Amino acid sequence: MTTFDQAESGFSLHPQLAADTAVVGDLLLSRVLLMKDARFPWLILVPRRAEIREIIHLSDGDQARLHREVAEASRAIKGLFRPDKLNIGAIGNMVPQLHVHVVGRTQADAAWPRPVWGSGPAEAYSDVALAERVARIAAALGRIAPAGARAI
């Protein structure tokens, strides 16, 4: 199993991801981010590996770990927000760093039934609402560490 320090080696978050998200914390492999768009419960998981663009570039073990972490994030979104559907995608056309979107969707949301990408301007969180949502998601994920902390 890969240690936390190995996961961090050479990793840096793409500037666009850093600008568009708030950090929730770190799972064993992935940094968990909350998209700064209050219209959707929207997480992004970024494997802490240097210069990875595709899932197939991860080791077999890391691919399995990423799959488990996407499932953990999906369960957290489902439990907290009760969406009608979960959308999961690793597109990367605009941001080349490997990242996986986990988005809770409801039939009443701003983009339904279309994809969330390009569905209009993001709705900003207030500082209080953002901090609250980050805390709720971190609690739902359970074993999550502050970004850059030691492994749990």
Question: How would you explain this protein's 3D organization?
Answer:
The protein has 152 residues and is of the alpha+beta class. The chain has a single domain (4-141), classed as HIT family, subunit A. The protein contains 4 helices and 5 strands; from the N terminus they run H-H-E-E-E-H-E-E-H. A 5-stranded antiparallel β-sheet has the order 1-2-3-5-4. It is globular. The model is unreliable at 1-6 (pLDDT under 50).
Produce a short descriptive summary.
With 152 residues, the protein is of the alpha+beta class. Helix content is 32%, strand content 19%.
Helix and strand layout, with pairings?
Layout: H1 4-8, H2 15-20, E1 21-26, E2 30-35, E3 42-47, H3 60-81, E4 85-89, E5 100-105, H4 127-141
Antiparallel strand pairs: 1-2, 2-3, 3-5, 4-5
Helix pairs in contact: 3-4
**Assembly annotation:** single chain
Helicity level, as a percent range?
25-40%
CA distance, first residue to last residue:
13 Å
What's the number of extended β-strand segments? 5
CATH architecture: 2-Layer Sandwich
Biggest sheet, in brief?
Answer: 5 strands, antiparallel
Low-pLDDT segments, ≥5 res: 1-6
**What is the CATH top level name?**
Alpha Beta
Radius of gyration equals 15 Å
**Shape, please?**
globular
InterPro entries: HIT-like (IPR011146), HIT-like_sf (IPR036265), HIT_Hint (IPR026026)
Pfam families: HIT
Keywords: Hydrolase
Protein name: Diadenosine tetraphosphate hydrolase
